[in-house]
Amino acid sequence: MATKTARPARTSAPAYRCGECGWTTAKWVGRCGECQAWGTVEETGQVVARTTAAVTVATPALRISEIDASAASYQPTQIGELDRVLGGGLVPGAVILLAGEPGVGKSTLVLDVAARVARLGKDVLYITGEESSAQVKLRAERIGALADTLYLTAESDLGQALGQVERLSPSLLIVDSVQTLSSAAVDGTAGGVTQVREVAASLIAAAKTRGMTTILVGHVTKDGSIAGPRLLEHLVDVVCQFEGDRHSRLRLMRAIKNRYGPTDEVGCFDLTETGVEGLADPSGLFVSRTKDPVSGTCITVTLEGRRPLLAEVQALLAESSNSQPRRATSGLDSSRVAMLLAVLQQRASLSLHKDDSYVATVGGVKLSEPATDLAVALAIASAKTNQPLAGRLIAFGEVGLAGEVRPVPGIAQRVQEAERLGFTHAVVPASPNGPGKVPAGFKVHEVSTLTEALELLF
């Protein structure tokens, strides 16, 4: 018996869209309600609201107990650091967005992943919109990423790309990059809000229908955010940020969003001439190797996600010839270093207002965790007094404006990592429950104030 359907109702109103994030509204506003950008909302035409009637169900819903979860099991990529960030490996049908600055090594990493998966006997399709197939082949030869079942194609049209997927039915699809593809079915230039939304929606639909793992390489804007509409981040399953300093070989990958695993894991990679290699133990990159202790240096342990990393903070003070002393930092938050200088002067009676201060980290690592405050303060005090700290010593803890040293998470984990790398002493914040499990032979000194720490060490 035929079901009588309701006639669609249509209402029209002027439509306005933000050129930065794609947010739409029925009336013009000066500031976008999504990304808070000013002057980016422009009129785009008419919005038509429709009501859709119910249709016959093609695939009935199943009980959750009847669904086979083995089809979504992890498949390791044989790159341990990447598997750590993803939660175990690639999931069939998952769509992964990998974003990063130009030249950070995104294309090299995904090409290596493509070759490793292809060597397992699976078909892999690599679509490049920025380079020719010959250029990708040269990179593959340089990093040893050649495989018989790895297919390359240079396409910028979405229809042609989907045609390649239809012909090969690959297990893994890599698109480098999603901003270079465009669809003839919608208006706008490649990389625009409308085009990125259409391209992403079509690729995600193909991935879900075929159970095909898809990796989309994305660009970032000047402020470090992912280019394109924020809707792109909501549509994909995993969002990974690949970052690193141009002058350093170290690369870090963070999972900003992960529907299949944790978002507090960090993967460490080493960018070499032969490709991007995983670093299972990167702590040695951030510590200088000197025979004798030097004043103005202090070792700390920071937590990148759930991974403890040793890093060295160096400070240098010099008498200023200007009325306004210079405050220079590298790898640290300049405002936080300025706060620590004020705390040392007011709470610890160190005269620093006439000195130029230079505070930096070793190896180009960026330390943003408040737990590094104590190490920065001790390095500055050591530089001021010209007295080196004891060898094989680490320090960590958050310093407040009152000069107190506040507890930080993971004290036992940090101490164990320091002991594993040969350190024997630690200055840590006093905690009601103590420092936790301490390795045998390792001495932990708990302090409650910055003055107490300075009296202990100097």
Kindly describe this structure.
The chain has 458 residues and is an alpha/beta fold. The protein folds into 3 domains: 11-49; 72-280, Rossmann fold (3-Layer(aba) Sandwich); 285-457, Ribosomal Protein S5, domain 2, CATH 3.30.230.10. Helix content is 24%, strand content 26%. It has 10 helices and 21 strands. The strands form 5 sheets. It has a 9-stranded mixed sheet with strand order 6-5-7-8-4-9-10-11-12, with helices on both faces. It has a 4-stranded mixed sheet with strand order 13-14-16-15. Helix 7 crosses helix 8. The longest helix is centred in the middle third of the chain and has 18 residues, at 193-210. The radius of gyration is 27 Å and the shape is globular. The protein starts with 10 loop residues before the first strand and ends with a helix. The model is unreliable at 1-11 (pLDDT under 50). Belongs to the RecA family. RadA subfamily.
CATH homology-level superfamily of the largest domain: P-loop containing nucleotide triphosphate hydrolases
Strand content: 25-35%
> Structurally, how many domains make up the residues?
3
Calculate Rg over CA atoms: 27 Å
Query: What's the tally of helices?
Result: 10
* Helicity level: 10-25%
CATH topology descriptor of the largest domain: Rossmann fold
Largest sheet: 9 strands, mixed
Give the number of DSSP strands.
Answer: 21
Instruction: Report the structural category.
Output: alpha/beta
- Tell me, rounded to a whole number, the average pLDDT: 88
What's the CATH architecture of the largest domain? 3-Layer(aba) Sandwich
Spans of 5+ residues with little confidence (pLDDT < 50)? 1-11
Major beta sheet, strand line-up: 6-5-7-8-4-9-10-11-12
Shape verdict: globular
The CATH first-level class of the largest domain comes to Alpha Beta
InterPro entries: AAA+_ATPase, DNA_repair_RadA, P-loop_NTPase, RecA_ATP-bd, Ribosomal_Su5_D2-typ_SF, Ribsml_uS5_D2-typ_fold_subgr, Rubredoxin_2
Binding site for ATP: 100-107
Region (Lon-protease-like): 356-458
Pfam families: AAA_25, ChlI, Zn_ribbon_LapB
